[in-house]
Amino acid sequence: GENVEQHPSTLSVQEGDSAVIKCTYSDSASNYFPWYKQELGKGPQLIIDIRSNVGEKKDQRIAVTLNKTAKHFSLHITETQPEDSAVYFCAASLSGSARQLTFGSGTQLTVLP
Amino acid sequence: DGGITQSPKYLFRKEGQNVTLSCEQNLNHDAMYWYRQDPGQGLRLIYYSQIVNDFQKGDIAEGYSVSREKKESFPLTVTSAQKNPTAFYLCASSSDYNLAKNIQYFGAGTRLSVL
After folding, report:
1. Does the distance separating the beta carbons of B42 and A6 come in below 8 Å?
2. Which residues of chain A have pLDDT under 70?
3. Which of A25, A45, B28, B65 can bridge A92 by disulfide, Cβ–Cβ 3.0-4.6 Å?
4. What is the per-residue pLDDT for B97?
5. Could you give the CA distance from residue A94 to residue A100 in angstroms, rounded to a whole number?
6. What is the least distance, in Å, from the CA of B97 to any CA of chain A?
């Protein structure tokens, strides 16, 4: 089955700096890669996703890049703000499969004021 | 969150006791999922259901049971056979898993502890 590794497990940045979280996956058939943000005591919420036919996608301060050859994808957050502090999870799935979404182990991002 | 209601927010289980976690969605989604979250780990799939009266085991189904008698409800029972039940449990739903982009929406979770 699919295996997703996520690094780093914790990340602290100064407000205004950029943050990068990286994930690798094992199944070359995976073709959908979402990122979820989980605030304390809440369920995860989708913040951005990318499909395998696209190399990069941006949404305001958030971007995701995908390298299918190397089987890795990354989340980039620019101009970080205190409200960006949360746990971020990457995931990978094979579209069309209900069993999908193998999650990474999560990254605790702390944005220091 | 997002039309998915999990209850209770906190639950305590005594030794040898079965407990049931509730998950209700008003999003008219076909598919529903249960995940377990442990500290420092990602979400692990317990059970999922693609349609009413049908469900499948996930990666860690042992010690758990589910039912899907109604489209909007997918309760999870943690049985006494689950020897390490302390965790945060998350329920999710999605509209159509056959879509190329199947977004899962999560509830706020239930934190289960053993007395």
Report:
1. yes
2. 95-100
3. A25
4. 60
5. 6
6. 5
